[in-house]
C-alpha cells in the first residue's frame, strides 16, 4: 500500500475548514431568519441577510432549487417512499443491490469489536449485514478456540488450575449505529430489525450528515450507502465523516456513479428514464420521487471527481472499485491522523506558495 | 404555459363551482365588470403554489406528468397487472384508463362539442367536489328530485365525490378534463341508473359506461367484473340488468354532455326521460335483492 503524504491536501483542508466554519456561522443565523416561502414579498424585509442562503441554488434532480429547499424536498421524497423502499430497490435493480451491499461488506471486512456508523442508513441494510458478518467472524473464532481447547497442553491445564476463579475477558462488542435524517426510514428499519430478531448492538439515531450528533474520533468505520448524493453539501458531509472517525478509521461510500462504456451507458439511461419512474408509479404510486432518484444519479460527480472531494476532506489512500460496469462505485479512504486546529497567529497559506 | 390554480369563479356567485383551468374571458357575463377582480384572484392564487418555474410537471394542467409512448405502454401494462392483482388499487385503474383511452377520449370530446350543453360544459369546465356542492340546499330539495336522490345515494353508500384520483398521464388538457369529468360523473350515473356501489351495481354501471364512452378500461372492467360475481347475482346480470345497461348505453344521450350542476332541482324521472334512460328493471339493494317491481 503506497503511503501518500500530501502536504498540499492537508493545507487545503485547513483553509477550507476555516472558510467553512466562518460561513457556517453566517448561514446558521441566516437560515433562522429567512422565511422559507416562495412569495417574493417577504424577502425584501431581510434582503440584507439574504445574499448568502437565498441566492445560492443547487440541483434537485434536473430542477434548480434554492439550497434551503433541497433538504426539505429530499425529506419529503424519502418520507413518501419509506414503506415501499426495499420492495422498490429489489424491483428496480432486480435484486442486484443486495450483491452491491454484500460487496461493500467484503471490502470493509469488519472485525469483531469494531464500531460502525451507517449514515443515511435508513432501513438498515448495511448495519444488518455488518452485524451478521461480525457475528459469523466471532463464531468462527469461538469455534477455533473450542477446537484448540479440546486437546489442551499440560501448560494450559496448569494455568487453568492456578487461576480457578478468573473469568474470561469479555471481548469488546461490535456496535452499529444507524443514523438518518428521515424518521420514516428509521421506523421502517426498526420494524425490519424486530422482524429479524436483531436487537443487541444496534442503535437508531436521527441526524443530519452535514452535522452529525456525535463527538470526534468515535468510530472505526463510517459508511454511507446510496445516501450521499441526496446531501445538499457533500463536502460538509465528508468533513463530518472525517471528524467522527478515529485515527486509522475508514470511510466507505457506496453510490451510483458514471458508466464508462457508451453502449452500457445508453442501455442504462434508457432503463433509468423509461422504466424506473413507471415502476415507481405502479408499485409505490409515486412517479415523481423515482424521477428525482434517476435525475439525482446523473447530477452526482463521477468517480474521479468524488475521489478528489474525499481527498480534500483529508482522507488518505482514497481509491474506488467499480461495480456492474460503473453503475455503482465503492469509494474508500482512511483517516490517518487527527488534523490540528489552526493555531493563533497562523496565516492560512494559499496552495501555490511553497512552505517556508 | 404556467400551471394555474383552482379558484372560485366570481362570474357566477350563485352556483360557485371551481373552474379548471381558468382562462381569460372564459365566462361571458352580462355585466362584464368583474374583469380586473377576476385577474387579481387568478394572480393571487397562482403565486401561492408555484414551486419552480422550470419544473417538467404541471405544464398542461396541475398534476400533469409528461410521458413518451414507451412509458405509456409500460404504464398501461404495469397498471393493468397491478389492478388485476389488487382491484382495490383505484389509482392503478385510473392510470390504466388514462394511458389507454386517448382515442375514446377524443371521440367523447367531439361528441360533447356536437351537443350545445356539452359545449357549455367544455367551456365552463365545472367540477363536482364536496366544497362546491351546497349540501344543505340539496338536502332541502323535494324527494325524487335529482339533487336529493344524489345526496341520498352518497349517504346510503357512504361515498364522497372527493375520492376521485386526479388525471396525470393525458397529454392534452382538454382531454384531461374530459377524463376528469368522466370520473366525477360516475357517481351521478349510479343515481341515474339506480345502482348501488356493490359489485353487481358497479358491473352494471361499467357495462353502461363501456357502451357510452368506449373507454378500453371500461370494457376491461365490464369483462372481468362478472368473473368475480357469485352465481346468484350472475343470473340477473345476464338476463335483465346487463341487456338493459347495454341498451340504455346505446340509446342514451352522451352523459358527459349534461351540466348536472344546474339540474339539481329537476325531477329524476324527468331527467331520465330527457336522457332517454329507462328506469332499472330490478331494484338492486346493497345487501339483498328484491323481486322486480312493476311500475
TrEMBL record, chain A:
Task: Show the catalytic activity.
Answer: a 2-methoxy-6-(all-trans-polyprenyl)benzene-1,4-diol + S-adenosyl-L-methionine = a 5-methoxy-2-methyl-3-(all-trans-polyprenyl)benzene-1,4-diol + S-adenosyl-L-homocysteine + H(+)
Q: Could you tell me the EC number(s) of this protein? A: 2.1.1.201
Residues noted as binding S-adenosyl-L-methionine in the record, renumbered to the chain: 123, 180, 208-209
Cellular component aspect of the GO annotation: extrinsic component of mitochondrial inner membrane
Q: How does it sit in the membrane?
A: Peripheral membrane protein
Keyword Cell membrane applies: no
GO molecular function terms attached to this record:
2-methoxy-6-polyprenyl-1,4-benzoquinol methyltransferase activity
Q: Which GO terms describe its biological process?
A: methylation
Protein's UniProt keywords contain Membrane: yes
Swiss-Prot/TrEMBL keywords: Membrane, Methyltransferase, Mitochondrion, Mitochondrion inner membrane, S-adenosyl-L-methionine, Transferase, Ubiquinone biosynthesis
> What's one Pfam family here?
Ubie_methyltran
Pathway field of the UniProt record reads: Cofactor biosynthesis; ubiquinone biosynthesis
What enzyme category does the UniProt record give?
transferase
Q: Where in the cell is it found?
A: Mitochondrion inner membrane
What interactions and quaternary structure are annotated?
A: Component of a multi-subunit COQ enzyme complex, composed of at least COQ3, COQ4, COQ5, COQ6, COQ7 and COQ9. Interacts with PYURF; the interaction is direct, stabilizes COQ5 protein and associates PYURF with COQ enzyme complex.
Per the similarity annotation, which family is this? Belongs to the class I-like SAM-binding methyltransferase superfamily. MenG/UbiE family.
What job does this protein perform? Methyltransferase required for the conversion of 2-polyprenyl-6-methoxy-1,4-benzoquinol (DDMQH2) to 2-polyprenyl-3-methyl-6-methoxy-1,4-benzoquinol (DMQH2). Methyltransferase required for the conversion of 2-decaprenyl-6-methoxy-1,4-benzoquinol (DDMQH2) to 2-decaprenyl-3-methyl-6-methoxy-1,4-benzoquinol (DMQH2).
Q: What is this protein called?
A: 2-methoxy-6-polyprenyl-1,4-benzoquinol methylase, mitochondrial
Organism whose genome encodes this protein:
Esox lucius
The major lineage groups are: Eukaryota, Metazoa, Chordata, Craniata, Vertebrata
Report the gene name.
COQ5
UniProtKB/TrEMBL annotation, chain B:
Reaction(s) the record says it catalyses? a 4-hydroxy-3-methoxy-5-(all-trans-polyprenyl)benzoate + H(+) = a 2-methoxy-6-(all-trans-polyprenyl)phenol + CO2
User: Which pathway is this protein engaged in?
Assistant: Cofactor biosynthesis; ubiquinone biosynthesis
Role played: Lyase that catalyzes the C1-decarboxylation of 4-hydroxy-3-methoxy-5-(all-trans-polyprenyl)benzoic acid into 2-methoxy-6-(all-trans-polyprenyl)phenol during ubiquinone biosynthesis.
User: Which ranges does the record mark as transmembrane?
Assistant: none
**Where on the tree of life does the source sit, at the highest rank?**
Eukaryota
Provide the E.C. number(s) assigned to this enzyme.
4.1.1.130
Its principal location? mitochondrion
List UniProt keywords, sorted A-Z.
Lyase, Membrane, Metal-binding, Mitochondrion, Mitochondrion inner membrane, Ubiquinone biosynthesis, Zinc
Binding-site positions, Zn(2+): 186-187, 190, 202
Can you say where in the cell this protein is located? Mitochondrion inner membrane
For this entry, the protein name equals: Ubiquinone biosynthesis protein COQ4 homolog, mitochondrial
